[in-house]
Write a structure and sequence with these properties.
Elements (H helix, E strand, L loop, with lengths): L7 H4 L3 H19 L3 H10 L20 H6 L15 E4 L9 E4 L1 H17 L7 E4 L7 H13 L2 E3 L6 H11 L3 E3 L5 H10 L4 H4 L4 E5 L5 H11 L2 E6 L10 E3 L6 E3 L4 E6 L13 E7 L10 E7 L1 E2 L11 E2 L10 E3 L2 E3 L1 H8 L5 E12 L2 E10 L8 H19 L4 E5 L14 E3 L5
Helix pairs in contact: 5-6, 7-8, 11-12
This protein binds adenosine-5'-diphosphate and zinc ion.
């Protein structure tokens, strides 16, 4: 099967042909979506018909779909078929109100697995690799999403699940793991465990490729992970509403993520005016599914902030690339009148070698004022009791963060492992402020 997931007839399709394909698939998707209670009512009311779509740009005539729409029509309002015709669902945590649930039929699962296989191949994973998937299985789409994709690619796949670093390392050594997928906040912890065992991934395993994603992380984090593990780290993007992993993926050039435009329509809009943004300018990513049957979603406002990278990619793939996601519009917090994204702090910390695997922003009210406290773990190698060196690190963080976000933080340096760990995505901001 080697080579089957390099799909040049699709991946290097001439842009004009790709737009034609998208327009045809958009018409089919609208016709299908109208079978669902939500879009049936909505498009019916607006008098929208599939035939009125001439080019893919006509997608802009459709209304946006939001997470609130999905929640408000929970659980079956977006289904185009009876629930019995679907074969799997994934849903989000739903900490507030209804969760969002996405249903897939057999075709959808097959199409998704194909996209993940194509993405993994694009990052250099081959059927000769042993692929260990180090993330939560179950409702989180990173588990089964990568599992089925890697199996389709033909790699021996180890469904290792999240956590238990010692066991992960044993699996990697026993079965010759050469590629892994894990979220960025977990990878430094895995590396610490290698060190605690007196091992190095580059010397004591066959690891050559790391796929990571699911959480905002900066280029500085990639550099740091590459230096730690001494192998290539690739960024991967997806969200449950658009299947999960396999929406956009880096190729070997690692200058942006190819978004698979045969299966999704890509738009970047200004989050305030909802008008399209020019290429190269950051805005909110809006996506439309083009190959999903049970539950198509059109013009979904992801709230993720990115831009379209102009120009062709040297790899020859014609599907446009998006820049690294810097977070969701709702990740932003305001402290002392300044707008701050957690990734601004992360970028600074990841350049400081003494910083360890974890950090947390705590917002609190002291007296009548907001306070920004940064709790930062020191790396095991630098946790030596040299108080002067640590004081220099503390001052460096204060200065660099103040220059970047215009708020002077309090900084608490902690011993390795001091912050609470979760098996899933890291929570980077804790807001304890009194709401007035
Ligand atoms: P949840 O919404 O509960 O986090 P998902 O697994 O659907 O569940 O998460 C998808 C979201 O994760 C995306 O909308 C985006 O905010 C974030 N995400 C996924 N991949 C990346 C990535 N490579 N870089 C930054 N953020 C990412
Ligand atoms: Zn490329």
């Amino acid at each position: 099967m080697s080579g089957a997931y390099w799909q040049p007839e699709i991946e290097t399709m001439a842009p004009a042909a790709l737009r034609e394909l998208q327009a045809a698939r958009l018409r089919e998707t609208i016709a299908r979506a109208m079978q669902s209670p939500f879009y049936g009512e909505c498009y019916g009311r607006l008098g929208l018909a599939p035939e009125s779509i001439r080019t893919v740009d006509d997608v802009r005539r459709l209304p946006f779909t939001t997470k609130e729409d999905l929640r408000g029509h929970y659980p079956y309002g977006f289904l185009t078929v009876p629930p019995q015709e679907t074969v799997r669902l994934h849903c989000s945590s739903g900490t507030t109100g209804n969760p969002t649930v996405i249903f897939h039929d057999r075709h959808d699962l097959d199409s998704w697995a194909n996209l993940v296989a194509r993405s993994m191949y694009c990052a250099g994973v081959r059927d000769s690799d042993v692929f260990q998937n180090i993330c939560g299985y179950g409702l989180f789409t990173g588990g089964l999403g990568f599992q089925y994709g890697a199996e389709k690619l033909g790699a021996l796949t180890i469904p290792a699940g999240a956590g238990n670093s010692r066991r992960q390392i044993k699996l990697m050594q026993d079965f010759g793991t050469s590629a892994i997928h894990a979220i960025p906040s977990y990878l430094p912890r895995l590396f610490d465990e290698f060190q605690a065992l007196g091992l190095h991934p580059a010397e004591d395993t066959k690891l050559r490729i790391i796929l990571t994603g699911a959480e905002p992380h900066s280029e500085e984090t990639r550099q740091r992970l590459q230096e730690m593990f001494r192998c290539k780290v690739f960024n991967s993007f997806g969200l449950s509403e658009m299947n999960g992993p396999g929406v956009a993926f880096e190729c070997d050039c690692r200058n942006g993520l190819h978004l698979w435009e045969d299966c999704f329509i890509l738009e970047i809009v200004d989050p305030e005016t909802l008008e399209p943004m020019p290429d190269g300018e950051r805005g909110e990513l809006v996506l439309t599914t083009l190959d999903r049957r049970a539950m198509p979603i059109l013009r979904y406002r992801t709230r993720d902030l990115t831009s379209i990278l102009p120009g062709p990619c040297p790899c020859g793939r014609t599907h446009r690339r998006i820049d690294r996601i810097t977070g969701r519009s709702d990740d932003m917090f305001i402290v002392k009148g300044c707008n701050v994204f957690p990734i601004q702090v992360e970028k600074i910390l990841m350049k400081i070698p003494e910083i360890g695997s974890d950090w947390l922003i705590v917002l609190d009210t002291v007296g009548d004022n907001d306070e920004l406290l940064l709790k930062v773990e020191i790396s095991p190698a630098h946790f030596t009791g040299d108080m002067e060196a640590l004081e220099r690190v503390r001052r460096r963080i204060i200065h660099e963060v103040r220059d970047e976000v215009l708020v002077s933080p309090h900084v608490q340096l902690l011993e390795p492992g001091a912050l609470p760990k979760s098996e899933g995505k890291a929570q980077r901001v804790q807001d304890l402020r009194k709401k007035s």
